[in-house]
Every structure is written in C-alpha cells, then in structure tokens.
Write a structure and sequence with these properties.
691 residues, alpha/beta, 3 domains, seven-stranded mixed sheet, 22 helices, 21 strands, 14% strand, disordered N terminus
Length: 691
C-alpha cells in the first residue's frame, strides 16, 4: 500500500482511547445487549491475573484501565509467544490488509459489475483510485442503497474487513483516505455524496447501522468495537475538520454495542464455560432499545439500558442454567431479534445480510487427550452457517476440501465442488505467502458463494490453467485412473492365528492392521533373521527407528492377501508437503512373498517383473507426477489422489515402450495425449526429475 508515514499501533491502545473519550463510551462498548451485562473474557488467556479474569467473568473498565492498563492489547502488540499460542491452539490466523481489500473488492465487484471502484490492487498492496465513484443505473443499486446494504464479518477479531485503521499484521496506521474496510467504503461514499454536516451524520449513522460483526473472545470484540467506533469518528473529523458532539458519540457507541456482539458461532448463543448450560430463547418480553437516535431522550434511555430488572444474584443464578440466544437489532424495522432466526428459508431475505465476509476458525482446539496431531476442521460449519444468513458469502479457508482431502466430510466436499453457485476466486498453495509463518497443508482459498448467480460447478479443482487443459485432454472417454491398481491403506493385516497363539502380544493393538510401528512394537513377531524352523515365512517391508527395513514374519500370521504373491511397486503412504511436482520418496519394487506395513501402499499387483518395472518408471515420469499433483495437496499419497493419472498398459503389448528411459517415456506420453509445447513446458518446468 502507499506509504503513509504514520505511526504503528502500540500496547497503550485501550488507555489512549479512554483518555480521549468520556468513560461512559468505553462502558457502553463493554455492554452485552443480549444479557444486559458486560461482555465476558471467554478465554483462559487472562486467568493468571486472578479473580475477575476467568473465562465467564465480565470485562469492566476497572479491569483494563488504571492499574490494570495494558491488559488488553491489539494483536500486533501482544508478546510473540501469545501470538504463537493462539495460532496453534485456535488455528487463529490474522488476515493481512491487502487480502481484506481484495475480498472487499470482490464483493463490491458484484454490486458495481466491475473492479477497481475504490482502489487498484497491486500484488500485496493497493492504490486508491482518483476517478469519481459511479454507481450502477439499475434500481436498488444507487449510493444510498449501497450505504444501507447490511454486511457482516464473521468471527471478526479486531474487525479488519469492517474497518482498516491499521494493518492487522504490521500494525501500521493507515490514513483515512487509504482505508479499505467495508465501513470505510460506505463512509467514503457518504463523504463524497453529502453536502452538509447534518446530512453526513445522517447517512454515516446509516452506514454504521449496516455494518455488523460477531466474535467469541471478549478482548477481540472490545478491540473491534473500538475500531468501528473510532472509524466513524475519524471519518467525521476527516470530512468536516471539527469536533464530535456528545450526542453523536453516544449514538455511535450505542449502535456499535448492538451491531458487534459476542457469540459462540456454533450455538448462536452467548459464550460460556459451563458445559451443562442450555441455549434458549429469551426474546419474549424483551424491551426495545433507544428509539430514533439524536433525540433528547437518548440519554435517559441509555441509563435504562439494562432490560432485565431482576437482581444481580437472580440474573447470575439463571444465567448459569441457561444461555440466551444472541439478540441483535433490525434498524430498518426498529426491533430486536435473535440472530439464529435469520437461518433458514423462513426468514425474509429483506432481513438477511447483503454479504457475509471473513476469516473463520479453521479447526477445533487441540485437547490433552486423543490424537494430538489431529484437530477437527470447523471452517465448513462456519461456511454453511454463513450461507444461511446471506445470499453472498466470501471467506478465506484451508483449500484441502477442493481436492476432497483433509478432515471435512467427503459428502460436504462433493457438495461444494458440485454447487453451481460456488466459485474459487483466489488460491495459494503456499499459505505462508498469505499468513506469515503459518503452514496450512494444501494451501488456502478465497471462495465466493452467490445464490443469485449460476457460476457453474467446479467439479474438479485444478489451480493451474495449463494443468487444467492437460487434464481435459487426458480425461477422454473410457478414462480409467491409476487408482484402480493402487491399494488402500492397511492392506496387510494379522490373521486370527496370531491372536490365538500370541494373545498377550496382540493386546498391544486395537485392530488387525500391520501398523507403521509394528516392527518396534512386536520384535517377537517381526525378526531381523529368518528363523531356522520348519515354517513358511514371508518378508515385510517397513520402518524401524526411522530407517527402512525388511523383517521376517510367519506367513500363517498374515491374513490372506492377493497382493502378497504378486509383483508390485511399494510407495510411501506419505511424503513431501503436497507441492506440485515434488519427487516421490524412493518407490521400490516388491517381489512375490514380500508385504509391507501401513507405512506403504502398493501400485499394481502384476505377474511379471517387467510389468512392475514399467509401473515404477511410469510413476517416476514428470507426466504422471504432474497429474498426481492435481489431487495431492498434502503429504498423503492415499489411493484417491492417484485418480486423475491415466492407467496404462504395462505389458509388452503396450503403446508405450517401457524399455526406454524415463525422459523418453515422458515424450511418448506427451505425444499420446497431444500436449502442446506450452503444456509440455509447464510440466518440464514445474515437475522435478526422478531417475
């Protein structure tokens, strides 16, 4: 972005705010409109500070100012270890401003039917356009409608998609005229289209009312509310160069405290640490907030903002039993309603958001039990939920689901790939280019779902145009994939006999698969030397102490397997990172009477050594590994990722001369599928050579 020469956000963020505005503004921004109390910490990060800082404790002015100054800091001012902790435990990544700008531009491109309305993107920067903002001529798309179009940032953190007061990654403060949040854009339009201060305030308030966000963690929510409030104030000062009245301050804070709310995105209820609490509706009998703003009675109404007149003890006792669904405000209809009511077809589209945007959580937190290397994905849940409250949803998420990989449900993956309203706008295989020092296997994707347009289903996602063209040529009629001769994981298993004869040994495992750790776990069953006894033995290929080794195993301890007595090529079940064109980790030919642990897969089960050698050469070709790279976006080589590699005839009667070198076989394959020079150059330049 253009140089601004301004300062960087520091740790005195809250203190600076409280010193510049009346304390009642901070008190308003701490209020939870659903509970009639204050927002809570909803995080264990502050528990070391003692009483009042537990997850379910309310955040108060006294806990974050004065002697408690510096407790809450913007992300960029946090200690490096805290940033790392949050990234690991919550898969919480912080969206750079250039990406927020790009995604807001995508949404605006739908409204304006063109790009570059507010700025021109320049790699990971942008330049503000100097041309007038021209709105579409069609009805309902003028500047007033744009300002009033409701937009929501989900799991908003510090609200970088809403307002860009500072770069959320670098902390650099941005001048008002260089900002790119969707509220910034609305206020920019208001500044250009209005003639008087009074008219400006009227439409700026409309812009504020049309900007929403929710967040789970109390510290982030407070920072978001402050940023949104400050954005209103800073645009007003920038346009009119004068102070803001108390009434305007109170009204802006009031609206922000409604529109940016604390919510558990899974339950649509107020966050809590109480595991047995039940979410329920509390809207019946709920009183409305202030009437039309800028009226003299506003201050009286603000004093009566607590709508639950019961005692504090009664409220706390009841709150422990049930958790209320979150209540937000419909400013068009002047009435509160529960957010969860927006979901589903029963809710009118007039009440739903024009667009939802954001960077949702990617996975559950790691726990102290179970598989510590695996955390269940949750971004798919947030994607589905967002689509229920808006016809237009643009989110950045892990990209693994696009190739049916990762932990998201396979049925859900297929649904997205075959959705005619779903489109990939941006894909980056190397996540660290988007989120600094963050490795997300399979890369990240910005996707758009627009229920109002038929965008055509993705079906098979291929990020490279050249590779997509190659796939179209290869995927001809009667196509059969190489996966048809690739084994599933866990092909070799223990027989019932070993359970009968070695029951104590077999108590060490819960299923019959010969696992990757079997050599070290069962030294009695897998021996380095072939025992000198009158029994039939076979060799098993696997890993021991990090090295590939063969071990001897009684044949009758092995469940019957058609692959055992065939020639095959053994490849690791996992290798590399999933980058296009990387080499396979030394595939080997396995002769009859050789099996393998779950560390490996088999490609082929053929009758001759010559066929196995042909298979080995084929999977080493640049052509085959380019096709493998379409679906292999993580380290895993499981059977499904081989699906788009065309199966060949590996016998002497093949149309490919397998006696040639690998590079010469590649040339035969290029000719067989009619690849152009550009397509051949793409493969040759992107795929590493294997000898």
């Amino acid at each position: 972005m253009e140089s601004n020469g301004q300062h960087t956000i520091g740790s005195g963020f809250i203190e600076s705010f409280d010193s510049r505005y009346p304390t009642r503004i901070l008190e308003t921004l701490l209020q939870d409109r659903t509970t009639g109390r204050n927002i809570i910490w909803a995080d264990n990060e502050y528990e070391a500070l003692g009483e009042g800082y537990m997850g379910d404790d309310e955040i108060t002015v006294e806990k974050i100012t004065g002697l408690s100054s510096g407790v809450i800091k913007p992300r960029i001012a946090k200690e490096q270890e805290h940033q790392s902790k949050r990234t690991k435990s919550r898969a919480e990544v912080f969206t750079p401003s250039w990406l927020c700008n790009q995604m807001n531009n995508d949404i605006d491109a739908v409204w304006f039917s063109r790009r570059n309305v507010f700025n021109r993107e320049d790699n990971q920067a942008w330049h503000i356009t100097q041309e007038p903002i021209v709105f579409p001529k069609k009805r309902g798309y003028g500047w007033r409608a744009y300002v009033e179009s409701p937009r929501l940032e989900i799991t908003c953190g510090e609200a970088p998609f809403v307002c860009s007061r500072y770069d959320s990654v670098t902390g650099d403060v941005l001048p008002v005229d260089k900002r790119i949040g969707f509220l910034d854009r609305k206020l920019l339009v208001v500044s250009k289209k209005t003639k008087s201060r009074r008219e400006w305030v009227k439409w700026a308030i409309c812009a504020l009312k049309a900007s929403y966000g929710f967040e789970y963690q109390g510290d982030n929510l407070l920072l978001a509310r402050i940023n949104v409030f400050e954005t209103f104030c800073e645009h007003l000062r920038e346009r009119w160069g004068m102070g803001i009245t108390d009434d305007e301050l109170d009204q802006a804070a009031w609206i922000v405290s409604w529109n940016f709310w604390q919510m558990n995105g899974f339950t649509c209820a107020v966050p809590t640490n109480k595991m047995d609490a039940v979410a329920q509706s509390t809207l019946f009998g709920y009183e409305e907030p202030a009437p039309e703003p800028l009226q003299p009675s506003l201050f009286d109404l603000l004093d009566e903002a607590s709508f639950d007149k019961s005692t504090q003890e009664e409220k706390e006792e009841e709150f422990g039993k049930t958790i209320p669904f979150c209540i937000i405000y419909d400013w068009q209809e002047n009435e509160p309603f529960e957010f969860q009511v927006m979901k589903g077809k029963a809710c009118s589209m007039d009440r739903k958001f024009y667009a939802v945007i954001g960077n949702p959580p990617y996975q559950e937190e790691f726990t102290d039990d179970g598989n510590k290397s695996y955390a269940k994905p949750v971004y798919n849940i947030f994607m589905d939920a967002a689509e229920e409250v808006s016809e237009r949803v643009e989110l950045i998420t892990p990209a693994r689901f696009l190739v049916n990989a990762g932990g998201t449900p396979k049925q859900w993956n297929e649904k997205k790939l075959n959705d005619p309203h779903f489109k990939v706008l941006y894909y980056e295989a190397d996540s660290s280019k988007v989120f600094i020092n963050t490795d997300i296997k399979g890369g990240v994707v910005v996707s758009l779902r627009d229920a109002t347009r038929n965008l055509g289903p993705i079906e098979t996602f291929i990020p490279f145009v050249e590779l997509s063209n190659i796939y179209q040529k290869v995927n001809a009629k009667n196509f059969v994939g190489l996966d048809s001769i690739v084994s599933n994981r866990g092909l070799y298993r223990f027989s019932q006999r070993v359970y009968d004869e070695e029951p104590e040994e077999m108590k060490k495992i819960t299923d019959s698969r010969i696992l990757s750790s079997s050599f070290d776990r069962f030294p009695k069953l897998f021996t380095c030397e072939k025992p000198d006894e009158q029994r039939e033995y076979v060799q098993i290929f696997g890993i021991s102490h990090g090295k590939r080794q063969y071990r001897w195993m009684r044949k009758d301890y092995l469940a019957k397997n058609h692959n055992l007595n065939k020639w095959k090529v053994m490849v690791p079940e996992a290798n590399g990172s999933g980058a296009l064109g990387e080499t396979l980790s030394t595939p080997l030919i396995g002769m009859p009477s050789i099996g393998f642990t779950e560390t490996f897969l088999a490609v082929g089960a053929v009758d001759t050594k010559q066929e196995a050698e042909a298979i080995l050469k084929y999977i080493k070709t640049k052509f085959a590994r380019a096709m493998l790279g379409i679906l292999k976006v993580t380290q895993h080589n499981t059977r499904p990722v081989w699906r788009l590699i065309p199966l060949q005839d590996f016998t002497e009667g093949s149309d490919i001369d397998w006696s040639k070198s690998i590079s010469e076989i590649d040339k035969q394959l290029y000719a067989k599928y009619g690849l152009s020079k550009e397509e051949i150059d793409f493969i040759e330049s992107h795929v590493k050579e294997m000898n």
